[in-house]
Amino acid sequence: MGKQIKIIELTEAISDVLKDLYRDRGKALLHENIEYFNEVGKNLGLERYTSTDHNITCSKLFAICDFFEISLSEFFIRVEERNKKLKFSKENQGDLVRKAYKN
């Protein structure tokens, strides 16, 4: 299996959107994790994903979006708004992927 790539621009934008979501709820991060654990029996690990030291899975992101009551599509719209380089454009196609594979 090949090395997992990490697109830092994507990771940073995801972290920023997650920070915004829990800040908008007005609750402490630890409190959010406890609430989710009490409801579902699993820890969200939000503190991990609010830093840029992650490479979140689709399933974990779905669980987080479900908890924050936001669709995946709305989440990714916010991610693209955070960093315009993440929105597809023909002239920049592949740039971020090539950069990630170089690192």
Walkthrough of the structure:
The chain starts with 7 loop residues before the first helix and ends with a helix. The protein has 6 helices and no strands. The protein is mainly α. It has a single domain (8-102), classed as 434 Repressor (Amino-terminal Domain).
Please give the CATH architecture: Orthogonal Bundle
Within the CATH hierarchy, at the fold level, what is the topology? 434 Repressor (Amino-terminal Domain)
Shape descriptor: elongated
> Which percent band covers the strand fraction?
under 5%
- Compute the gyration radius: what is it? 15 Å
Largest sheet: none
Low-confidence stretches: none
Protein name: XRE family transcriptional regulator
Short description:
61% of the residues lie in helices and 0% in strands. The protein has 103 residues and is mostly helical.
Q: Could you name the key traits of this structure?
A:
103 residues; 434 Repressor (Amino-terminal Domain); 0% strand; elongated; XRE family transcriptional regulator
Question: What are the SSEs and their pairings?
Answer:
Blueprint: H1 8-25, H2 29-40, H3 46-49, H4 58-67, H5 72-82, H6 95-102
